[in-house]
Structure formats: structure tokens, C-alpha cells
């Protein structure tokens, strides 16, 4: 007569297929809930980084005008090619770009004229900025807007 086999000795340790599937479903649902908000937060962080990059480049141009005593104009990159003497553009990370109307005039002492800029990602206007401060500080007007209209008077 053979000895009875104990159940504990024959069962293997580990998880059943059903337990693994339940865990995978929970992970998939968690990811589906979290990903849209995470993606939105990453997009906002990137747009803010591009805004600060734009502001830093404008500040660099202001310092250059103040240091050299030569007035500069920041123009829309698609406005004119080649650029006249004293006109500058800013290169933003791809696929970001900006539109600017009217051109931002930076005087010899570093004071700036009023201007409106749009920060654009691909073909979508992400934010509209306005500079009314002689210190060239741009403020954010809104998150989505139409491109600024071209000024009727060109300098």
C-alpha cells in the first residue's frame, strides 16, 4: 500500500494566471487614468520652458543694446529675409516658434516698445504674450489666441 500524498507537497508556489491577469488589469486602468493628466502637465511645463527661453533671449538682446548703444529690433522670423541691419530673430526649440507684431524695438538704453507675441507649437498658438513694460518683460495674456495682426505701419 502506498502512502497518501500530501497536498502541500504537490502544489507549486507562485501565482495563478487569474491573479496575474487581475494585477495587469489594475495596472492598465491606473495608467489610463493617470496618463492624460501627466501628458497635459508635461505639455504645460514645456510651454512654460519655451516662454522663459523666449523671455531670456529678449533680455539678452536688451543687454546687448544697452552695452553697445545700438538700437535693435526683434522681428517676426517669417517677416523678412534677409534681415535688415539691426533686426534680430530668436530661434526657439523645434517645433516651437513665435510670431510678433509689431516688431519689438529695443532702444540704445535698453527700453522696449510695446509688442504682442504668440508662442506657437506646430500650427497651434499656445500662449499670447504682451510687452508694455520698458524693461522688456512679457506677460501672459491667455493660453490660446489667434495670431496677432500685422501692424499697418512698418519701420
How does this model look, in words?
The chain has helices at 7-10, 17-68, and strands spanning 72-74, 87-88, 96-101, 104-106, 115-121, 124-131, 139-142. It contains two helices and seven strands, in the order H-H-E-E-E-E-E-E-E. The chain has one domain (16-142): minor pseudopilin epsh fold (3-Layer(bab) Sandwich), CATH 3.55.40. The chain starts with 6 loop residues before the first helix and ends in a 13-residue tail after the last strand. A four-stranded antiparallel beta sheet has the order 3-5-6-7, with helices on one face. Strand 6 and strand 7 form a beta hairpin. The protein is α+β, with helices and mostly antiparallel strands and 155 residues long.
Kindly report the CATH topology.
minor pseudopilin epsh fold
What structural category do the secondary elements indicate?
alpha+beta
What distance separates the N and C termini?
A: 109 Å
Strand order, largest beta sheet: 3-5-6-7
Largest sheet: 4 strands, antiparallel
* Low-pLDDT runs: 149-155
> What's the tally of helices?
2
Number of strands: 7
Amino acid at each position: 500500500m502506498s502512502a497518501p500524498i500530501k497536498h502541500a507537497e504537490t502544489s507549486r508556489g507562485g501565482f495563478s494566471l487569474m491573479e496575474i491577469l487581475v494585477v495587469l488589469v489594475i495596472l492598465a486602468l491606473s495608467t489610463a487614468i493617470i496618463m492624460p493628466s501627466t501628458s497635459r502637465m508635461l505639455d504645460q511645463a514645456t510651454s512654460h520652458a519655451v516662454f522663459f527661453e523666449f523671455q531670456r533671449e529678449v533680455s539678452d538682446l536688451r543687454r546687448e543694446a544697452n552695452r553697445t548703444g545700438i538700437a535693435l529690433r526683434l522681428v517676426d522670423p517669417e517677416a523678412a529675409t534677409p534681415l535688415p541691419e539691426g533686426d534680430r530673430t530668436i530661434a526657439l526649440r523645434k517645433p516651437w516658434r513665435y510670431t510678433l507684431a509689431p516688431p519689438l524695438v529695443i532702444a540704445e538704453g535698453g527700453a522696449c516698445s510695446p509688442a504682442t507675441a504668440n508662442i506657437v507649437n506646430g500650427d497651434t498658438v499656445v500662449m499670447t504674450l504682451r510687452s508694455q513694460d520698458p524693461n522688456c518683460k512679457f506677460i501672459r495674456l491667455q493660453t490660446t489666441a489667434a495670431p496677432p495682426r500685422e501692424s499697418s505701419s512698418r519701420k
